[in-house]
Amino acid sequence: MTQVTINAINTAIAETLGATAGVVRVQDAGDLGEGLLDLPAIQVYWQGSITEPGGETDRRTFGAGVRLTRLTFYADVYARQRSHLGEDMTRTLALAVQTVLEAQHQPPFFGLAGVRALRWNAERVTFDYGGAAYAGVRFVIETTVY
Prior knowledge:
By secondary structure, this protein is α+β, with helices and mostly antiparallel strands.
């Protein structure tokens, strides 16, 4: 993997999503707690990675292959505590996290030179967190570094 670290990518994603209108708090991986006090909130954390064997890519130095590493991060968006489906959906859709991600249309993604590609998807979720249910969205963000 290039010089960019998992922690640096996690923080860059959290800082970027902090620009989402209406979000009160964004928690980076090191700031996660056992409960949610301020809503709407976003929690960003690393979920997994896969490294592909070195091979033919467009980046080679002195004939050496470059390994691609795909890092997966979750950005859990907690819109409000679950109570009424219609109100929960209205609040969830009002948060424009997707718009912030769509603004990342070319490298360097999240302002990090090592992040060469970005892919993401989202799904509506009812989170069970700290004994309470929350309406929201899980963004699965996959970055590629090499």
